[in-house]
Amino acid sequence: MKKLSSIFLCVVMMLSFFGCGKDNTDSSTNSTSQNTNQSTETEIYFLNFKPEVSSVYEEIAAKYKEETGVTVKVVTAASDTYEQTLTSEVAKKDAPTIFQINGPIGYRKWANYCLDLSDTNLYSFLSDKSLAITQGNGVYGIPYVVEAYGIIYNDDIMDRYFELDDRQKKVNSVDEITNFENLRTVVEDMTKHKNTLEIDGVFASTSFSSGNSWRWNTHLANVPLYYEFKEAEGFDDPTLAGLGADEITFKYAENFKNIFDLYVNNSGTEKGLLGSKSIGDSMSEFALGKVAMVQNGTWAYKEIAGVEGNKVEEDDIGFLPIYTGVKGEEKQGLCIGTENYLAVNSKVSKGKQQASIDFLEWLFSSREGKKYVTEKLEFISPFNTFEDDELPEDPLSKETIRWMNRDGITSVPWIFTSFPSEVFKEELSSALLEYVQGQTDWTSVRKRTVDSWKNEK
Amino acid sequence: MHNNLKKQFPIFVLPTLAAFLIAFAIPFFMGIYLSLTEFTTITDASFVGVQNYMKAFSDNSFLSALWFTVRFTVVSVITVNIIAFTLAMILTKGLRGTNFFRTVFFMPNLIGGIVLGYIWQIIINGILQYAGVTITFDPKYGFLGLVVLTNWQLIGYMMIIYIAGIQNIPGDLIDASRVDGAGFFDTLKNVIIPMVMPSVTICLFLTLTNSFKLFDANLALTDGAPAGKTTMLALDIYKTFYGRIGYQGVGQAKAVVFFLIAALISLVQLGITRRKEVDV
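^ inputs. structure came back:
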C-alpha cells in the first residue's frame, strides 16, 4: 500500500514537472515567435472600462485582426477596479496602449502617460472639440461616448396609474411632470395606490452596498452642485468652476434632500436594509415590474433587458430629468456628458502608438467599425463621422436623443468629473447612508460634504 | 561526501533564494524606497523625503484604523486561542468521531477570505434583517462580524497545532500527576499548559499576525462601512493608495509603518512566550 502511494506521488510530481516544463517551452516559443513577427511591434493592448460590453470588444478585436492582421488584446477591468487594474498594468513591460481616463481629475493622475492626440484624425472627428481633455495646445483625452442619466420610468405602470379614478387630479400625465413639485405629487400619490398598481414601491432600492453608491454620491450630487457651480463667477463652464473651487457651500443641499428623501420614502425597501442593496438589485426590481422608477443611465438598458423574467417592454421605458426643486427647472433636461475618455499611452513604442490610433480611427470612422459602435456597443457617439441615422436603437438612447433635441431644454453637464477624489465621494455616501438610517441629520450631511471637499482639494 | 555537498550547495539554495529575492526582498526594499517618493506607477517616482510619513500621521483615518485593528486583534487573539485550545482538549480525549470533527473544524481554514467575507455578510445580514438593519448599520456589528469570521476561519488551524502539542505530552507525566493526586485543573495548569507552550507560541504568533494583517475578509464583509469606522489598517492603506490622486506614496508610507508595528508586536510576543517554554 505504502509503495503504491509513493509511486503515485512520484508520478504526480513528475507530471507536475512536465506541466511546468511544457508551459515554459510554450511561452518561450511564443516570445521568440513574437520577436520574429513584425506584427508584435504594433500589437494593441486595449484596457476596457466597461464590463457590460467586454464581449463586444472581443468581437471587434477579432474583426480587426481579420481585416488588417493587427492583434488587439482586450482586457476588461472588473467593475469599479479600473484604477487598480490600470495602475498595475501600466507598470508592466507589455503595458496597455489604449486606456481610459475619467475626466480632468483622472488626467491629473495619468498626465505623464497621455499622448498628445491633437494631430490625429480621431480628434478632428470630434463634433464638439471642447469635449476633449486639453492642456495648453495638447489634447490628451478624447471622449468616445455620450451618455445620459435621469429617472428611468416604466410607462406601463405610469399608464395604469393615470387611468385610476381616485388618483390626484393635479398632474395628469407623465408629460406634465416638469418640476419637482409635480414629481412629488405623482410619486406620493402612487405610493398610496401601490397595492392597486401591484408594485412594491415607486422607486427601486437606493443601493448603498460597497461600490454601489455612485448613483447618489456621484450622479445625484451632480445636479445640486451643477447649479452651484453655474453661479460661480469667472468661469466659462460649470466643470471648470468645479475644478477651480477650493471650497463649496453646498448651496442646493436642500434640493438634494428633496429628491433623496423622495427616493427612500417611496421605495419598496426598508431604509435599514439599503446598506446591503446593490445596483443589480435595483435594476432587477425595475425589470421585474416591482417598481415604477429607478435613477440610472443609458448603459442600464442592457442590464434591464438582461434580467431573467424581465417584464418591462422595450417601448415602455422612458426617461425623466432629475428634478430637485430648483427654480426654473422646467427647462432642465437629462444629465448628459461622459466620463469616458480614451487616451493613448505615451510610454509605449511609436509603432504601438500609431497602431492604437489607427485602430481607434478605424473603429469610429470605417463602416464596419461604426456598425459595431452603434449596433453592438450602442454608443451615442460624439464624432462627426456618424451620420444622423447611425444612432443606437435601444429605448434609453432614443429617449436621450429626444431630450437633447427638445426646444428650450438645457441638458445638465456631467460636472462630477471635477469632484476632488474617491475619498470625497465615499464620505458623501457614508453621510447619506447614516442619514437614511436615522443616525445623523441633514445638517451634518451638508457639513461633512463641505468639509470633505475642502480636505480633498 | 561532505565536500560534495558543499559544492552542490548553490544548486539547492538557488531556487529558494531566487524566489525569496523576487517575491520578498526586492519588493520590500522597493516599497521602502517608494514610501519616500511621489509616484503614479512604480516605475516612475520622484523623491520627496519624509513628507509622505507626515501626511500619513496627520490622517485621521489611519489612526482610527490603527485603534480599530488593535481592539480587533486583542479580542480575536483571545477568543481564537481559548476556543481552539478547548476544542483540542476535547478532541484528544479519544471520543468517538474525533477524526471527523477534526476535519470539520479544520475545513473553514481552506476557504479564502473573500469568499468567507461574502458568505458571512449574507448570514449576518440575513439575521439582522429581522431587526430591519444591515451589517453596515453600526460599526459594532461589523466588529463582531469580523471577530466571528476570524474565529471561524482560524480556530480549526490553531486546534490542529494544539492537538499536536497535547499529543506530544508523554503519558507518564499525566499519570504521575494523577498519582500525586492532581485534579483536572491542576493537571491542566501545571502539566499540560507548560508542556504545550511551544504550540502556544506559534498559535499566538499566527493569530496575532493574521488578525493584525486581515484584509480580504474586511474588504468583503464591510468594506470599512459605515463611514470607514470598520476599516482595518490594511484596508486603509489600500484605500489611501487608490482613493486619492497623488496619495500613492502616502499609502506606501503607511504600509511601511504598518510593517514596523506588526514586526514589533510579533517580536515582543515571541520573546515573552518563548521564555515560558519548558524543556523536558
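Chain B has a mean pLDDT of 87. The longest strand of chain B covers residues 37-39.
thumbs up if we can close this ticket
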